[in-house]
Target: ABC-type dipeptide transport system, periplasmic component
Amino acid sequence: MPLLKGANMLQSRVARPRRLAVVGIAGALAFSLAACAESERDSAGGGEGGTFVFGATGAPSNFDPYYASDGETFRVTRNMFENLVGIKPGTAELEAELAKEWTPSKDGKTWTFELEEGVTFHDGEPFNAEAVCANFERMYNQEGAGASPALSYYWTENFGGFADGEKPSLYDGCEATAEHTVELKLTRYTADFPTMLTQDSFAMQSPKAMDEYKANDVKAEGDSFVFSEYARKHPTGTGPFVFDSYDEANGTITLKRNEDYWGEKAKLDRVIFRIIPDETARKQALEAGEIDGYDFPSPADWDALEKAGFQVEIRDPFNILYLGITQKSNPALKELKVRQAIAHAIDRETLVSSIMPENSEVAKQMYPPSVDGYADDVVEYEHDVDKAKKLLKEAGHADLTVELWYPTQVTRPYMPNPTAIFGAIKEDLEEAGITVKPISKPWAGGYTDDVESARAELFLLGWTGDYNSPNNFIGTFFGTTDNQFYTGGSPWGEDLAQALDDADSIVDAKEREAAYQDINRDMMSEYLPAIPLTHSPPALVLRPEVEGLVPSPLTKEEFSTVTVAE
Model:
């Protein structure tokens, strides 16, 4: 196969727009829990490992992982699709998946992947080097709605631009040098490659199925998108489960075991994802035996669930909850002393002890200590109301008024109770003499869109790492100046973005570590574009009959090892 080469050669900056909300396949899904009272397990049939029914918090956006950026979509697709490289279960460590080994060139701009042999897609088509190149060329050649940051989020975050050449791209081409050997070419070295390929959006999909069912046929319609037949009905990967059906009326997605899987076959006959948006309803469904598990149980319920005999699996924290500060519409927030005053006003210790889950920690910078480049000696902002008032007075804003935004209709790994967290921070700010104007919106009903558009003054948001890299955290937040914090309006915004870009390009590991430590120090002392709040360990809960599920710090559990005892 000839070299498929991108239009852009070596460029320095790759855009990293933040994750946007995408409306699900059928829009907001509403249904009665009572309508699904009959356990799917009763009608699903038996098998070696039976059927595993999981309570999902929301509907998937679609079933094409390339066009997704939300956890509920990936929860389904990662059981059907596989990547060139994967993450070792229960860790954030890299491991082989569809590629059994990989080797970089001396300059780190050409990577040779040796692929597993004897692998087929669910439609019987062979997985080989040509299929890999077809996937990457499909990603790189997106046009129209498909090239929007809302749909090509992970591509634009990691690889930058597309074949149209308007923006620089990290991707420089793909060549099948043998049936099971492929070369991926980059325009520059980045410390994140090939680990970035573990992200669900870069899963390998059947070129034949994508062509037959017009995978790229996606159109914008108002604030949402209309997806292709492929993305709605025919997702085709190489994974241990294959797509069976999506019953939108009852909010259930069914996968069945891939009997032709190239590796160790799934122990389960099938997996059913049952969409139950309300956390209390998910708990009731678990207690009634209608589902076998669900994610993000309320921390207040952990003890009671364990006493009732359920398994509460607590993951290691790999996230950050922060108070974002947009320096766009409120001139006072452009002042460093004002941002420092807000930081001193917040009692993060009490937030951790009274609201967040057990084993949560106060965050000192914008990613957890387990990530490379963490600096132990950053400036810290202890809770000090008097100091907060003094700084506001010095800045000429003793009568500061701010909007404080928080989301509703959502539970996130880093934000288990948005309303309670909002209430605590509002009280802290008011104690420091700051007038707070509350603004709440549904998570998928305007909140994320407005935050990403820098319309929110102060806002609650967070991030669970996709992999162990500082660039995946602070590079995602501040790697460009067009972001939710509106750092482009600050004199230091471009300096921060450039420093992050430079650090990512450093080949020597120790030198790169030192560069990120310097960036973290500067962010907490000179910039303070956001206030890190907490790192919290999200949990998932399972019936006692469930065995074999390995909790992931990245919240990327796979279900092929699960069994459910009768």
Notes: The first helix runs from residue 40 to 43. The chain is about 25% helix and 20% strand. Confidence is low (pLDDT under 50) at residues 1-47. The longest strand covers residues 171-178.
